[in-house]
Amino acid sequence: MSYSVGQVSAFAGVTVRTLHHYDRAGLLSPSGRSGAGYRLYGDTDLARLQQILFYRELGFSLDEIAEILKDPQANALEHLQARLRKLSEEIGRLQRLAEVAAQAIEVQRTGVELTPAERFEVFGEIGFDLSYATEAQLKWQDSPGRKESMARAAAHTKEDWRQLMGEAAAWRAELLAAFDDGEPDHGERAMDLAEEHRLHIARWFTTCPPDMHRRIADDFATDPRAFALVVPPSQQRPGLAAYLRKAVHANAARRADPEEDR
């Protein structure tokens, strides 16, 4: 039985233009012609079209499909295995993106609601990079501290944010002064500033033992998005993030020393 190009287009779910393109590319040439010269497709042609559409659905290019159909028995398995690996990787990537998107929604729902003008008034230059926020949420999502921090942040009022950001700005000015004065990162002044930062986190967000504070400071030194949460780019100096990290580590070591608590 033979079918016209219009009939094949209708029941295969492809356009006539696509069928013409397959013909010109030598991928699917109809086995017959009508008396008027119109394309006619037979059952063998339809079986080949089904294979083409199957491979297209899997993401193969027309050149790859042509190579496979030259000798399906020899070429199909290797190509399909390679495609399966790529699809598995893509599935994993999309699952991670879905998780990030879900966390982004959660982050957007959490926290005080401010107009743009109010946000600038309260936060000034401090920006919240959503990509970092969602990655941090994924990284710390099973941490009780992270959950407590998100819950407390959500409960803060505009005045709470104004007060805590004022405290943060005053601390930041002292940090910059210590750095610019050449204070050693393991010196008492730097360690005291690190301790003040740890207590600020505990006061406004979540209990922050020294080990957690070290991990937070490690992020400051390795991820500019994290450091921008405490020091906006316009106020940063080369080496400042590493300086703060070392001060935090030195303070954590100091607090771990029983002699320091006497």
Structure, explained:
The protein is mainly α and 262 residues long. It folds into two domains: 3-59, Multidrug-efflux Transporter Regulator, Chain: A, Domain 2, CATH 1.10.1660; 110-261, Antibiotic binding domain of TipA-like multidrug resistance regulators (Globin-like, Orthogonal Bundle). Helices cover 70% and strands 3% of the residues. A three-stranded antiparallel sheet has the order 1-3-2. The model is unreliable at 258-262 (pLDDT under 50). InterPro entries: DNA-bd_dom_put_sf (IPR009061), MerR-type_HTH_dom (IPR000551), MerR_fam (IPR047057), TipA-like_antibiotic-bd (IPR036244), TipAS_dom (IPR012925). One of its GO terms (molecular function) is DNA binding. Residues 77-104 form a coiled coil. Residues 1-71 form the HTH merR-type domain.
Distance from N terminus to C terminus (CA atoms, Å) equals: 97 Å
Q: State the name of the first-level CATH class of the largest domain.
A: Mainly Alpha
Largest sheet, spatial ordering of strands: 1-3-2
Estimated radius of gyration: 31 Å
Shape: rod-shaped
Count of individual helical segments: 13
Relative strand content: under 5%
Organism: Streptomyces caeruleatus
Domain HTH merR-type: 1-71
GO molecular function, one term: DNA binding
Protein name: Transcriptional regulator
Descriptors:
mainly alpha; 2 domains; Multidrug-efflux Transporter Regulator, Chain: A, Domain 2; 262 residues; rod-shaped
Which secondary structure elements does this structure contain, and how are they paired or packed?
Blueprint: E1 3-4, H1 5-12, H2 16-24, E2 32-33, E3 39-41, H3 43-57, H4 62-70, H5 72-109, H6 116-123, H7 130-140, H8 144-155, H9 158-180, H10 188-204, H11 210-222, H12 224-227, H13 240-256
Antiparallel strand pairs: 1-3, 2-3
Helix pairs in contact: 4-5, 5-7, 9-10, 10-13, 11-13
Keywords: Activator, Coiled coil, DNA-binding, Transcription, Transcription regulation
Pfam family, one: MerR_1
Coiled coil: 77-104
